[in-house]
Design goal:
Number of domains: 2
Number of helices: 16
Radius of gyration: 24 Å
InterPro entries: Amidohydro_3, D-aminoacylase_insert_dom_sf, Metal-dep_hydrolase_composite, Metal_Hydrolase, Metallo-dep_Hydrolases_sf
Strand content: 15-25%
Largest sheet: 9 strands, mixed
Organism: SAR86 cluster bacterium
CATH topology of the largest domain: TIM Barrel
Helix content: 25-40%
CATH class of the largest domain: Alpha Beta
Number of strands: 21
Structural class: alpha/beta
CATH architecture of the largest domain: Alpha-Beta Barrel
CATH superfamily of the largest domain: Metal-dependent hydrolases
Protein name: D-aminoacylase
GO molecular function, one term: hydrolase activity, acting on carbon-nitrogen (but not peptide) bonds, in linear amides
């Protein structure tokens, strides 16, 4: 009889399966809805959250989250992480912030074809989830190159066809970069025709507007109009106000958003929590001069009459736009042809050329840098008060606008390393600009709603187990403009699709990220 019971216990042990793969206990759950925190346990089985509450079941892994916040993984709805994701598929810079989903294809520039890109992502295997937009600028360039003209009817049909296929391949919607060439050469109506295709498949329109400085009001109106005319949600991406003479205009832009929402239109925003932007140094060069590409611009620079016109506009942009009124506000972040320039500002470089650091001489420095291979730059020209105004808006998500950094390369904007902890530390814990539940909502359920990403963005039964566990008292961004290559503190655990990818603040090496197809995927 004793032998029978031993055998029975052995057989039961062989078939025993714990109730949960991961059980998170003793944590304060901020569920992503904006509601107040609750103390609860979270049970995970396979890739889903199956229970939230007072749980007592067995688990393969138990995480004691005492003294920590348990929230949905953060969804970054604006990155340029395709620059680096194949070099750093483990995505530490983002995962150590708590980001579990990355989107790319922003500012009108995207991979094409979308289907092939998704296949490459899937075969590479990456740690976070991944989704992309189709870029209006990329589509236009594919059909028309960098020509500054309207498309022919045939060319427009060709662009419509490309967007149609991209939506079927799973793009989230259409992105535009109407500040950048060749998107800047597009009329509103041209963009509307492509946005209508995204609308047909349930996608959205997300735009780096035509201007974020003196013409910001007109640009917000244009973005909203495109959404209205194409009948789809419109997103003013990385919303900011550039140039000291324009500071404070966020009050007016947000009124325009509210008016459109009150009329029944879906308009949203996203932002990063910094007072500087980053893009190509070409942002100081007028778009008309860039038509036809690099060789054509170089020819125009060599023509004394055209050069004088270009220089005049560069000076204007240094004084009243991205230059923030002084060449010292433009800092080179990447110059692969001469890395000694990285971290130096236009004033310093101009002085090194033996010239006074005036806006006029800095314009000549821009010409010299472009001739030798161009560069990327950080532009300090944003007011913290505008950052706060935008952050308080209920329709504003948090997004980094950052690439996937290769640790130690260049002097990039710190946003790729610090966006989300910076919000939680500076604007929540220290300044109380928004509450913790509201901040988490802006990082989770709000972007999930805008992007039509189903069953993510909440700590909720039946939702995918994308979860971040962090210390609200110590979470902080360490990356600075002077020393950007520093990971953030305070994120203890991260789960992606139920798999632990960060444990004790260290990456586990796991790569469970999935492609998240858009609503038109066939």
């Amino acid at each position: 009889m004793r032998s029978f019971f031993i055998l029975l216990l052995f057989l039961v042990g062989c078939t025993y399966e714990p109730e949960y793969d991961v059980l998170i206990i003793n944590g304060k759950v901020v569920d992503g809805s904006g509601r107040d925190p609750i103390f609860a346990s979270v049970g995970v089985k396979n890739d889903k959250i199956i229970n939230v509450g007072d749980l007592k079941g067995s688990a393969l892994k138990i995480i004691n989250a005492k003294g920590l916040i348990v929230s949905p993984g953060f969804i970054d709805m604006h990155t340029h992480a395709v620059r680096g994701i194949f070099d750093v598929p483990t995505a530490e810079a983002f995962l150590f912030q708590g980001v579990t989903t990355l989107t790319d294809g922003n500012d009108g520039s995207s991979p094409l074809p979308i289907g092939e890109h998704y296949e490459k992502i899937s075969s590479t295997k990456i740690s976070p989830n991944w989704a992309v937009f189709v870029g209006q600028g990329t589509v236009r360039r594919e059909v028309m190159g960098l020509e500054n003209r309207a498309p022919t009817p045939q060319e427009l049909e060709q662009m419509i066809s490309i967007v149609d296929q991209a939506m079927k391949d799973g793009a989230l919607g259409l992105s535009s970069g109407l500040f950048y060439v060749p998107g800047s050469f597009s009329t509103k109506n041209e963009v509307v025709e492509l946005a209508k295709v995204a609308s047909k498949y349930g996608g959205i329109y997300i735009s780096h507007m035509r201007d974020e400085a003196a013409l910001i009001i007109e640009s917000v109106n244009e973005t909203i109009d495109i959404g209205k005319l194409a009948e789809l949600p419109a997103v003013i991406t990385h919303h900011k106000v550039i140039g000291k003479s324009n500071w404070g205009l966020s009050k007016e832009t947000l009124k325009l958003v509210d008016a459109a929402v009150n009329e029944g239109f879906d308009v949203y925003l996203d932002q990063y929590p910094y007072t500087a932007s980053q893009t190509s140094l070409r942002a100081l060069i007028p778009q008309w001069a860039q038509a036809g590409g690099r060789e054509m611009l170089l020819q125009r620079i060599e023509d004394s009459e055209i050069r004088a016109k270009i220089k005049e506009e560069i000076i204007e942009r240094i004084l009243f736009d991205r230059g923030g009124g002084d060449p010292k506000n433009v800092v080179i972040s990447e110059a692969k042809w001469d890395t000694s320039l990285e971290g130096k500002n236009l004033a310093e470089i101009t002085i090194s050329y033996g010239l006074e650091p005036s806006a006029e001489n800095a314009a000549e420095t821009v010409f010299k840098i472009y001739k030798q291979g161009n560069a990327r730059a950080v532009f300090h020209a944003i007011s913290d008060e505008d950052v706060k105004n935008i952050m308080r808006h209920p329709r504003a998500s948090i997004a980094s606008d950052g690439p996937m950094m290769i640790f130690g390369e260049g002097k990039p904007h710190p946003r790729s390393y610090g966006t989300y902890p910076r919000v939680l530390a500076k604007y929540v814990r220290e300044q109380n600009i928004i509450s913790l539940p509201e901040a988490i909502r802006k990082m989770t359920s709000l972007p999930a709603k805008v992007l039509s990403i189903k069953e993510r963005g909440l700590i909720k039964e039946g939702y995918y187990a994308d979860i971040v566990i962090f210390n609200e008292k110590t979470i902080s961004d360490n990356a600075t403009f002077q020393n950007p290559h520093q990971y953030s503190n305070g994120v203890e655990f991260v789960l992606v699709n139920g798999i632990v990818v960060v444990e004790g603040g260290n990456h586990t090496g796991a790569k469970p990220g999935k492609v998240l197809h858009g609503p038109g995927y066939k």
